[in-house]
Amino acid sequence: MKATFEYKTATEIALENEWSGKNPFGLLYEGAVAENKPGRVNIHPIAYDNRGVRIAANVYTPPAWNPQTEERFPAICVAHPNGGVKEQVAGLYAQLLAARGFVAIAADASYQGSSGGEPRYLDLPSIRTEDIRRMADVIASFHGVDANRIGLLGICGGGGYAFNVAKTDKRFKAVATLSAFNTGLVRREGFLGTQKDTVAERLRAAAKQREAEAAGAPVAYTPNMLDWPKEKGLALTQDLYRDGYEYYGLTHRHPRSTFSATVTGLLETALWDARDGAALIDQPLLMIAGDAADTLYLTQGMFEAATGTADKELFLVPKAHHIETYWKHEYVVKIEAKLADFFSSRL
Questions:
Q1: Do the beta carbons of residue 278 and residue 306 sit within 8 Å?
Q2: Which of 75, 279, 281, 284 is the residue whose CA sits 20 to 30 A from 347?
Q3: Residue 306 is part of a domain; what is its CATH number?
Q4: Rounded to 5°, angle at Cα 168 from 166 and 174
Q5: Angle, nearest 10°, between helix axes 296-305 and 157-166?
Q6: How far is CA 290 from CA 31, 79, 194, 298, in A?
Q7: Is the pTM of this model over 0.90?
Q8: Is residue 133 one of the residues assigned to a domain?
């Protein structure tokens, strides 16, 4: 069945972004579209349904796109990081790819950002992977898109989920990840394996919380470090979390972006691992990460598990940390060029 969507009204857009006076679309990255003009990258806020949840998304169209013609363009679905929103790094790379000739969509995950759904900040692998599949449904119906040339880019947690989707959804003809994060592995064992010994204890606590919520207790969330004092956040020793605090909490802060997740979500994420079934990926695969990132082991683990494709590449960005690939100009230009070359040659 053909997917349907609706363009958002100016009132809806204004209400979503009333907190920000810098960009009319609420975009937080350098060089963001602020006004739609002919012959430029344009942005089209849309909304659509995904299993009863209203999804908020932005579609970026290339300079040559024209709603009055039948010219067809390849398309890219961009999945945002865990806790992120479409106005941050996902929007940046969607816009950069649009400038290279692709129609690109960045959507807030169900229960997150400007998308609907309760409880808020529910981030489960089953839901996130279905969100990505739904993006493909929708973008295939967008004017000017060649439904036979759809690619997929996942960033951080979105990279792990994109990797997962590619195993079975062959509508995606080429798949790329940036600073990929294996959410299940980290939720189970802790970042860099620091919580392996406490998984049973944490699972008991999650089960107890589910029991309490079933009896009427409010939804419990993991701590949100973005609410920490600046001195505490910037004193974190792990690059991922220190740089993440700075990016999400200070320089690119968005009121709907959070590091919190439901406590009970561990009951599902602890069972999940992006590497499981990775041999099913037979599409061209590009995995990008900073060679100085403390998350590099997560990308490497997924890359090694993807034994089903002969067309795969691990592209390392010299000296880059995980979060720096989201915004630092000297790294972004290299990543943009690599992504454009990869998708142009495979779609």
A1: yes
A2: 279
A3: 3.40.50.1820
A4: 30
A5: 0
A6: 23, 19, 21, 12
A7: yes
A8: yes
Compute the distance between CA of residue 255 and CA of residue 120 in angstroms, rounded to an integer: 13
pLDDT number for residue 4? 86
pLDDT value at 104 more than 60: yes
Model confidence over 182-193: pLDDT tens digits? 999 999 999 999
| Banded model confidence at residue 21, pLDDT cuts 50, 70, 90 | low
* Element of type H or E holding 242: helix 239-246
Answer yes or no: is 21 within a domain.
yes
Residue 134 within any structural domain of the chain: yes
Report the b/e string of 142-173 with b at 16+ CB within 10 A. Answer: bbbbeeebbbbbbbbbbbbbbbbbbbebebbb
Structure tokens at 230: 């600046």
Find the mean pLDDT for residues 52-76: 97
Residue 1 has pLDDT above 60, yes or no: no
Query: Peptide bond before 45: cis, by omega within 30 degrees of 0?
Result: no
Residue 288 to residues 19, 151, 291: CA-CA distances in angstroms? Answer: 33, 15, 9
Q: Assess if residue 241 is contained within a domain.
A: no
> What's the confidence (pLDDT) of residue 20?
60
pLDDT reported for residue 96: 98
Question: What is the C-alpha separation between 182 and 172, in angstroms, rounded?
Answer: 20
In this prediction, what percent of the chain has a pLDDT beyond 90? 95
Check the CA dihedral 285-261-90-12 and report its sign: positive
Domain membership of residue 341 as a residue range: 6-182+273-346
Nearest to 289 by CA among 299, 280, 281: 299
pLDDT digit string (tens) for 38-51?
A: 999 999 999 999 99
- What number of other Cβ atoms are within 10 A of residue 71's Cβ? 12
Which residue is listed with tokens 């944490």? 202
At 122, the amino acid letter reads L
Tokens found for residue 188:
């189970």
Q: pLDDT for 249-296, tens place per residue?
A: 999 999 999 999 999 999 999 999 999 999 999 999 999 999 999 999
What pLDDT score does 304 carry? 98
Q: How many domains does the chain have?
A: 1
Spatial distance between the Cα atoms of 220 and 203, rounded to a whole number of angstroms: 14
